[in-house]
Design goal:
The protein is of the alpha/beta class. It has helices at residues 10-18, 26-37, 51-64, 83-96, 114-122, 131-139, 156-159, 162-174, 190-199, 231-242, 254-266, 280-291, 325-332, 353-363, 397-403; strands spanning 41-44, 76-79, 104-107, 126-129, 150-154, 180-185, 205-208, 219-225, 247-250, 271-274, 297-300, 315-318, 342-348, 369-372. The chain folds into 2 domains: 3-208, P-loop containing nucleotide triphosphate hydrolases (Rossmann fold, 3-Layer(aba) Sandwich); 219-389, 3-Layer(aba) Sandwich (Rossmann fold), CATH 3.40.50. Helix 3 crosses helix 4 (83-96) and helix 13 (325-332) packs across helix 14. The protein is globular. The protein binds adenosine monophosphate.
């Protein structure tokens, strides 16, 4: 299938060409025709497979077809769980509609509201927002949703989960019942799917791409069993000796992330943290620095787990495993996007093994185990890893194969993937 065969307007087709998109990804090929027909949709597909364009392109087409008297009124609303994702979705919508007169705006908290209010006053066709600021500005009378015809929940399972459901319920009372609703995510727990069914129209459609394997195949995975105190040493070793290029490290707490940055700083490894205690400016600066290659390591809480597209990111390290297994899928999905490959390395302390079990249940696969880590407590500064205990470097696999983790034993599940130093073609 080609984009040309979808019957999209020439301006959209040429914008897609400019992006270098030659053909629709599977989620796009299946969703776009359904959405152009006007059905509600629940779309599930692996991370990094083009869901944003799958909902944005048909919205742009619909909005361009709207009656002229509705020009510059909000006709499409996309709601995302994080500010960074809202910015990214808005950027994409702007790119895909660059050859049209449509106006896209983005609003989110943590920054001054005035520039956003000014934008709203000038008139907006497509609005991308996080829920808090959206409800706030709506309450103050700056947002009129009466002309809304398209409503998107990106990362829908998170938007309908505990943290956001109250805001979403409020929002649903503010938007017209006669609308097209589009829910997208890489993960869709059963309870959330049932809830979605109550919000979407009864004749809603579902597109499910590889739902039984939510992690992208192109992301190799492995896990170290390691004590908490040994984690800093292993991370430094991996960053200095094994992994080349940018690395996104996930921690569970804001304080923990800051601590990791301090440890890396001391070792001369450029790192920045991104989490909810940072100012929005600092968050955006850290992400930008990372995307542009000025910061090598970004240490993040799960605010960076969903949706963020960092082109060419090769490695994700789960310094601490997430207690919600879906989060693992989203975290490791920050690498291996579009056609790229990537690796995910998880550090699992004794008290995290239950989380690992849950993750493996969700992804229906064992995460290959590298080996119980050899460091002894307190030896964090002066150590070297015995050669047979480090993961294979690329190009040395066959040699290492003889010396690597034992096969079949307690500590070696099916061949741990290489995540060794690679020549980075990222920047
Ligand atoms: P998403 O899952 O929407 O974040 O998209 C993941 C990445 O795939 C982004 O970098 C997109 O620019 C890219 N992408 C989306 N659709 C296509 C396509 N049809 N062809 C090539 N790349 C795409």
């Amino acid at each position: 299938m080609t984009f040309d065969s979808l019957g999209l307007k020439p301006q959209i087709l040429s914008a897609l060409k400019q992006q270098g998109y030659t053909q629709p990804t599977p989620i796009q090929a299946q969703s776009i025709p359904i959405l152009l027909e006007g059905f509600d949709l629940l779309g599930t597909a692996q991370t990094g497979t083009g869901k944003t364009a799958a909902f944005t392109i048909p919205i742009i087409e619909h909005v361009l077809n709207a009656p002229s008297e509705r020009r510059r009124s909000i006709k499409a609303l996309v709601v995302t769980p994080t500010r960074e994702l809202a910015l990214q979705v808005a950027e994409n919508a702007k790119r895909y509609s660059s050859g049209t007169s449509l106006r896209t705006a983005v609003i989110f908290g943590g920054v001054g509201a005035n520039p956003q209010i000014d934008q709203l006053k000038r008139g907006v066709d497509i609005l991308v927002a996080t829920p808090g600021r959206l409800l706030d500005l709506q309450g103050q009378g700056y947002i009129d949703l009466r002309n809304l015809t398209h409503f998107v929940l990106d990362e829908a399972d998170q938007m309908l989960d505990m943290g956001f459901i109250h805001d979403i319920k409020k929002l649903l009372r503010l938007i017209p019942a006669k609308r097209q609703s589009l829910f997208f995510s890489a993960t869709m727990p059963k309870t959330i799917m049932e809830l979605s069914g109550q919000i979407l129209k009864p004749n809603y459609k579902q597109v499910r791409i590889a739902v039984e394997k939510p992690t992208a195949e192109r992301v190799s995975q492995c896990v170290y069993y390691i004590s908490k105190s040994e984690k800093p040493s292993l991370l430094i070793h991996l960053l200095k000796e094994e992994l080349e290029g940018s690395v996104l490290v996930f921690g569970r707490t804001k304080h923990g992330c800051d601590k990791v940055v301090r440890i890396l700083d001391k070792k001369g490894i450029s790192a920045a943290a991104i989490h909810g205690n940072k100012s929005q400016n600092a968050r955006q600066k850290a992400l930008k620095g990372f995307k542009e290659g000025r910061v090598r390591v970004l240490v993040a809480t799960d605010i960076a787990a969903r949706g963020i597209d960092i082109s060419g990111l090769e490695h994700v390290v789960n310094y601490e495993l997430p207690n919600i297994s879906e989060t693992y899928v989203h975290r490791i999905g920050r690498t291996g996007r579009a056609d790229a490959s990537g690796s995910s390395i998880s550090f699992c302390a004794a008290d995290e093994r239950g989380y690992l079990k849950d993750i493996e249940k969700l992804i229906k696969a064992k995460v290959p185990l590298i080996e119980e880590h050899p460091f002894t407590e307190g030896a964090a500064e002066e150590w070297s890893i015995p050669e047979n205990r480090i993961p294979a470097k690329q190009g040395q696999r066959s040699q290492r194969g003889q010396r690597g983790p034992k096969q079949g034993g307690r500590n070696s599940r099916s061949g741990a993937p290489a995540h060794g130093k690679r020549s980075s073609n990222r920047r």
